[in-house]
Amino acid sequence: MTWIDLFLTPFYLLIIYVLAYIVKPHVSNRHTGKYFIPALSLKLLGAVCLGLVYQFYYDGGDTFSYFNSAKQIWEAFNKSTATGIDVITAEAGNYSGNSSTYTMRMWGFRSQANLMVIKIVGILGLISFGSYTVISLLFAVLSFSGLWAMYLTFYKIRPTLHKELAIASFFVPSVFFWGSGIMKDTICIGALGWAFFGFYHLLLATEKKIFSFVILAVSIFLIKEIKTYLILSFLPAAIFWIVLEYNKRIKQVYIRVLVFPLILGIGLVVAYFGAVKVSEDSDRYAIDKIAERAAITSNYLERQTLARAGVGRRTGSEYSVGTLDGSFGSILTVAPQAIVVTLYRPFLFEVRNPVMLLSAIEASWFLFLTIYIICKTGVIKFFTVAFKDPLVSFGMIFSIVFAIGVGATSGNFGTLVRYKIPLIPFYLVALYIMLAELRKFTGRKKQVRRQRYVVHTTPTPMI
């Protein structure tokens, strides 16, 4: 960060807030509007804080690597527009052509995921005079737009829970911190929010069909380019959600029961071929190589952790869920531990640094809410409610599948806290809906008891 950041940041913040107050009346109502500016402000604060933490606490990191690599794009545009376009359109790992002078100096140019982030940073840098902080703010704004679209979709489905839905979408610390700034996670969680919005409005709502299709296609493209495994976790859950929604709309119970297996079968086939289509251009995430890739990723991240800590040393933020040998069987074996470590760890007594403390407090809250709901409803009732409500089913399935993926491969709480943020809003929303159903059920029981009490205690009139 330099003097140009100090000079430009207040100016761009002013522009962002002016535009926010102009847009707000068009994308909110009296219930949702009160969360718009606070949620945006937290995202902007998170973007600035993330940069400061990486600069002064971690002494560098991926966020600055993306930024420094994007400088090559700006240099190319300074030479000529044609050269800049060549660099922007360069394919990962292809050092030939006029762009090679610049791409050879790019960190992570061989990785399509890293290159996509670098290109986005480069494009935003052209309208922000290459200021790191301003680009971070713009990342936060783009991410917020997706989260707001996601929140509006939640609200459309469950309008009475506007406060709880806002908490889950915007006010979880790790989401507005790690989901802001110049990071892959910022782009992906924003794109996931837009994908959720597009999926709902394209297949379940009656309006915004063309816009929904376009926004869904763009969102899936971005996620596929950066984190393909996120789409592979989202797609099956989304298909199951749609199946339950359409099945729920069948009024005759017996027809609903008879048709459900057929609809579910069609949905599973669509989900499978959709996943194959999404991953067909990726050797890393091809369906038949997922288990092998998970084992490779897990071993790689473990070596990286040891390399940072020093040979033979451990930092205290590592964890193990078991050994992955490249087979689906090994994934199923470690799945329960991977789910627990992703959703409910680190425990408070495992905290070794401030970052872990933040994650541990959140994980403790998730654990408390989950145990509370299960204790109040019972295990059978818990899963019955989860299955009956389509949105809860979606949130739970997506969270569990994604938790297995990131929990089994991360091996370190420091990376896991970033990797798991896409599931946090959906898991919390599922819990809050179940909590609302529990309160509704408890309220009905109390009302019945009061009615019985009135009936039994009402004196018989004397004739």
Provide the succession of SSEs: HHHHHHHHHHHHHHHHHHHH
Helix and strand content put the structural class at: mainly alpha
The main sheet comes to: none
Count the beta strands.
Answer: 0
Count of separate structural domains: 2
Question: Mean of the pLDDT scores?
Answer: 82
Span between termini: 90 Å
Describe the structure.
By secondary structure, this protein is mainly α. It has 2 domains: 3-197, no CATH class; 227-449, no CATH class. It is 76% helix and 0% strand. It has helices at residues 3-23, 33-56, 62-79, 81-88, 100-103, 112-126, 132-157, 162-170, 173-178, 184-203, 209-226, 228-248, 253-279, 290-309, 328-344, 354-377, 379-388, 390-410, 413-419, 424-457. Helix 12 (228-248) packs antiparallel against helix 13.
Write a concise synopsis of the structure shown:
This protein has 463 residues and is an all-alpha fold. Helix content is 76%, strand content 0%. The termini are far apart.
